[in-house]
Write a structure and sequence with these properties.
The complex is a heterodimer of chains A (about 220) and B (about 80).
Chain A lengths: L2 H22 L14 H27 L3 H32 L8 H22 L4 H25 L15 H44 L1
Chain B lengths: L1 H22 L20 H41 L1
Classes of the chains: A mainly alpha (about 220), B mainly alpha (about 80).
C-alpha cells in the first residue's frame, strides 16, 4: 500500500467519523423533517455508484480498443466498487422513501434504471468469476453497456414523472445543507479512490500469480 | 316491481362499501405520508439510524474483505517469487 493510498484512507476514515456531527449541524428540511438526513449518505453513494460505472466503462474501452492490460485491472476494481456503492444507494434510498413517499419502492425511471445498472455490474462480476477464459472481453463489453446507462439515470428525473427529487436540488441547496453534503461527497470520493487503487493492485497481483503458476507448470 | 325496489335499496346500502374499497390504494402506489395509519408509520430516527448503520457496516466489511484478500495475494506472490528465484 502506497503512502498516498494510506493518507487517502486515513483522511476518509476521519471524515466518516466526523460526519455524524457535521450532518447533525444541518437544519431539518421543512416537509420531510429528520428523515431527509439520509440524503447526506444516499447521494454520495449514488454518485460513487455512477462514477464506478463510468470508470469501469472507460477502462474497459481502453482494454478492448487500445489493448491495455492494466486497464482491465482498473475496470474490475471499478465494477466491484460500483456494486458496493450501488448497494448502499439502493438500500438507503428505500429507507428514506418509506418515510417521505409512504412506500419503499416505486418503479419509476430513476429507480428502475439504477437497479438495472446495479444488476449489470453484478453480472459483470459473476462473468469474471465464473466465465472462464475470454470472459474479460465479454465483461468489458458489458461494462460499456453499463456506462451508457449512467447519463440516462442522471437525467431520468427531469424527463419522466417521478417522486424522486430532480437534479436541480443540489445547486439550490442552502449553504447550511450544502456544507455537510459536500463534506460527505469528499469523504466518499477519497474512500472510492483509495479502494479503487487497492482493488486494482489486488487484480494486478492475481494476474502475476496466475502467470507465475503457468510458468512453473511449463517448467 | 317489488324485486326492483329491493335491488335499489340493496344498491344504496352497498354503495359506501364499494366506493370505500375503490379509494383504498394498492400497496405499490404512492400514499401521502399524512394518509398512512399511525400504526404503520415508522419513526424517522429508526430509518436514519438503519441507513447510517448499514453504510458503516457495509463499508467496514468491504474494506476488511479487501484488506484480507490483498494480504493473501501478497503472501502468495512472495512465496511464488521466492520459488521462482
Amino acid at each position: 500500500m502506497t503512502t498516498a493510498v494510506k493518507a487517502q484512507l486515513g483522511i476518509a476514515a476521519l471524515m466518516f467519523a466526523a460526519s455524524p456531527w457535521v450532518i447533525n449541524a444541518a437544519p431539518h428540511e421543512a416537509t420531510m423533517g429528520l428523515v431527509y438526513k439520509i440524503y447526506f449518505y444516499h447521494m454520495p453513494s449514488a454518485w460513487m455508484f455512477m462514477l464506478g460505472a463510468i470508470v469501469a466503462g472507460v477502462a474497459s474501452a481502453r482494454f478492448l480498443f487500445a489493448k491495455r492490460q492494466a486497464s482491465d485491472a482498473t475496470a474490475v476494481a471499478a465494477a466491484e466498487l460500483a456494486v458496493v456503492f450501488g448497494l448502499l444507494a439502493l438500500v438507503t434510498g428505500p429507507l428514506w422513501a418509506r418515510k417521505a413517499w409512504g412506500v419503499w419502492w416505486v418503479w419509476d425511471a430513476r429507480l428502475t434504471s439504477s437497479l438495472m445498472l446495479f444488476l449489470i455490474f453484478v453480472a459483470y462480476l459473476l462473468l469474471r468469476q465464473f466465465g472462464g477464459p475470454g470472459s474479460e472481453k465479454l465483461s468489458a463489453g458489458l461494462a460499456l453497456f453499463g456506462m451508457a446507462n449512467v447519463p440516462f439515470i442522471y437525467v431520468s428525473v427531469n424527463y419522466w414523472r417521478t417522486l424522486h427529487p430532480k437534479t436541480s436540488v443540489v445547486p439550490t441547496l442552502p449553504v447550511a445543507m450544502g456544507i455537510p453534503l459536500w463534506f460527505c461527497v469528499c469523504a466518499f470520493l477519497l474512500l472510492f479512490l483509495a479502494l479503487l487503487s487497492l482493488r486494482a493492485t489486488l487484480e494486478t497481483h492475481r494476474a502475476r500469480i496466475d502467470s507465475l503458476y503457468l510458468s512453473h507448470d511449463e517448467a | 316491481m317489488r324485486y326492483l325496489r329491493v335491488l335499489f335499496i340493496l344498491s344504496l346500502l352497498a354503495a359506501p362499501a364499494v366506493s370505500g374499497a375503490q379509494q383504498t390504494p394498492s400497496p405499490d402506489e404512492f400514499v401521502p405520508i399524512s394518509e398512512i395509519p399511525a400504526e404503520e408509520q415508522i419513526p424517522a430516527i429508526n430509518l436514519v439510524a438503519a441507513a447510517y448503520a448499514f453504510v458503516w457496516v457495509a463499508l467496514f466489511g468491504y474494506v476488511w474483505s479487501l484488506g484480507s484478500r490483498l494480504g493473501k495475494a501478497e503472501a502468495d506472490l512472495a512465496r511464488l517469487e521466492r520459488k521462482d528465484h
